[in-house]
Each structure stands twice: as structure tokens, then as C-alpha cells.
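queue> pop job 88
queue> type: inverse folding (structure -> sequence)
queue> payload:
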């Protein structure tokens, strides 16, 4: 159950073994839901990778590498580095749908949660006290969740663009192999598929 798993994570956090938790993984696998659940449980800020898409006019001429549509520099300098140094940060989220920046977000605390695909990208520099979760999902369930979330018309874009881009990123940088835990999550139950470290 999720409560037992969260209690286990709490024990690791309380020993100062963890100050950043990353939640990466496949589309539709429950990353955002788990991030919000953990943020509520730990009373910690959660930052969404969706807030760090590059504006469209900055993507032209980008080198071809997995995840090149994300603004890693802004995430590093506005969130990760200030949190490591001061346990607080301010950033302005970018809305890819409107192609505009939103209102300023301010957070502070002893634990930071970053959820979303590409949060484990090697361009990002974290501390040694970072715990990496990789969420996975059966392809048939993945399709059902994505259609249930965005409607049938959204599936084509995921199938032809976003899922292949994610899989290229996972494979190129061995993201799953670098995770401390690989899990599946249905909103209530955590199923641990593999675990690298146990406290």
C-alpha cells in the first residue's frame, strides 16, 4: 500500500539521507499524482518538469539530443542550485500550451520533489542525497490512461512523438538502470519492481 511505502520513504528522509526526490518515468505512469501525494505527505514543495519546457522560439537550432525541448539551465539555476544552497527558490513556470510564462512560484523546505520526464537528465546536477524513482506502466494501460486523461484525439501525438522521444531518452542515458527504485503506481498501490538501495 502507498502508506507503507511512504512511511519507508519517511524513515530514509528523516535520517538526512535524502534531500531531493526525483520522479521520472513513462507517460501516464502516475508521476504527477505520486508527486502531489508525496508533497502532501512530506509537506514539501513539488516542482513539475512541465513548467520547464523551452519556449518554441528557443528550440530552433537546438542540438539533436534526447530531451532537447526542456530548459535544463533554467531549472538548474532557478530551482536546484538555490535549493541546495538555501533550501528555498523562486521560479516562473512556462506554459507550453499558451507559450507564455506564468506567475512567480516561491518555495522553501528541507526536501524538494521534482516530478516529470527528463528530471533525471544527465545535464542536471544534483546532490549525493538525491533519491531517484522510475515509474513504469504496461503499454496497454498507458494508452488507456492517456486517452482517459486527454481524450482519443490526444493519443496520436503521444504515440508518434512524445512516447518515442521518452523511450529514446530512457535508452540513451540508461535512466531506469540509474534509478534507486522502479515502481508502478495506480493511485493507491505501489508495486516495487526493482530496488537498488534499501535502508
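queue> result:
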Amino acid at each position: 500500500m502507498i502508506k507503507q511505502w511512504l512511511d519507508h520513504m519517511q524513515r530514509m528522509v528523516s535520517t538526512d539521507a535524502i534531500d531531493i526526490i526525483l520522479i521520472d518515468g513513462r507517460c501516464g505512469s502516475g508521476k504527477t499524482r505520486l508527486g502531489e501525494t508525496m508533497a502532501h505527505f512530506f509537506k514539501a514543495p513539488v516542482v513539475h518538469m512541465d513548467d520547464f519546457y523551452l519556449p518554441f522560439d528557443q528550440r530552433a537550432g537546438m542540438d539533436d539530443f534526447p530531451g532537447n525541448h526542456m530548459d535544463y539551465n533554467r531549472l538548474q539555476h532557478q530551482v536546484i542550485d538555490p535549493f541546495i544552497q538555501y533550501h528555498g527558490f523562486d521560479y516562473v513556470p512556462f506554459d507550453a500550451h499558451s507559450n507564455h510564462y506564468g506567475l512567480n512560484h516561491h518555495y522553501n523546505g528541507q526536501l524538494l520533489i521534482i516530478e516529470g520526464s527528463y528530471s533525471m537528465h544527465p545535464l542536471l546536477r544534483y546532490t549525493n542525497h538525491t533519491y531517484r524513482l522510475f515509474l513504469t506502466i504496461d503499454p496497454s494501460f498507458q494508452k488507456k490512461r492517456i486517452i482517459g486523461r486527454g481524450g482519443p484525439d490526444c493519443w496520436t501525438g503521444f504515440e508518434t512523438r512524445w512516447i518515442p522521444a521518452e523511450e529514446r531518452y530512457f535508452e540513451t542515458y540508461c535512466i531506469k538502470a540509474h534509478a534507486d527504485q522502479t515502481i508502478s503506481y495506480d493511485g493507491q498501490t505501489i508495486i516495487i519492481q526493482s530496488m537498488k538501495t534499501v535502508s
